[in-house]
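Reader question, answered in our methods column.
A reader sent in the components of a multi-part assembly and asked whether the whole thing could be modeled at once rather than chain by chain. We filled in our standard form and ran it. Here is what they sent:
COMPLEX SIZE: two components
ENTRIES:
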Amino acid sequence: MTTQRHEFDPTPFLVEELPWAPRFSLRVRPEHRAALAGALSLELPSKVGQRSTAAGTEVLCLGPDEWTILAQDADALTTASSAAYAQIPHSLVEISDREITLRISGAQALTALTTGCPRDVEAMPVGTGARTLFDTATIVLWRDDRQSFRIDVWRSFLPHVHAILDQVLVELKSGL
Amino acid sequence: MLLIHCPYCDETLPESEFAYAGEAHINRPADPSALSDEEWRDYLFIRTNARGPHYERWRHIHGCGRFFNAVRDTVSDRFLMTYEAGEARPDLTVKEAAE
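And here is the structure of the entire assembly that came back:
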């Protein structure tokens, strides 16, 4: 009796749910960007998609006047924000509970993302991020490494996104 | 799928990240109560329905979130150019001469 040998990758990619972390949405007009960056001791990149990291706090520029901040010290950030508020008009909103972050990593992480994301994810430089789509859900996609991504999904869309990723995982494991 | 250049992100991205938002360069009348019913109807509903280059608004809703303007040829569905909201209506003859 002959047996067919299959050489499929048993773990094409890994989906992990990352623990809760303080997350903020910052809106400020471009003319006040530099002043606010100084007041909050953060680097606010001016180009959409660029990221900066300082002392464990990550900042991603989502739009010309919008940033997402993954804060290491949330209290220090809100204190600095309220101190600067009178001089520099801006809005800093805590959105920690709005989204849940998944890490997608592994040899076929890119394949997994291309099933739902219409962007050319492969062409996205490492160390950048963007708001985009996964199937019909808006996500924020962070590229940390060639094969390591984070996606922030609104919590009500998470079962949908997770179901698609699980389906893809099954298909890739079976060699489809 | 159309590929649309977002002037704020400075990237050419798939259509599904964008939403169409009607004809561009339509200013709301400064004093609506001074208008006749016909003028108000024209402001609300009457559009050019152009055959050829059409000036229209788009929003990069699943991206930077910004509204911008685009010139799209309604016959070929090609995007001729996109530009930031608030900029004056571009002169297409200048663009053609430059190419």
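What stands out: The mean pLDDT of chain B is 93. The longest strand of chain B covers residues 53-59.
Send us your own complexes using the same form.
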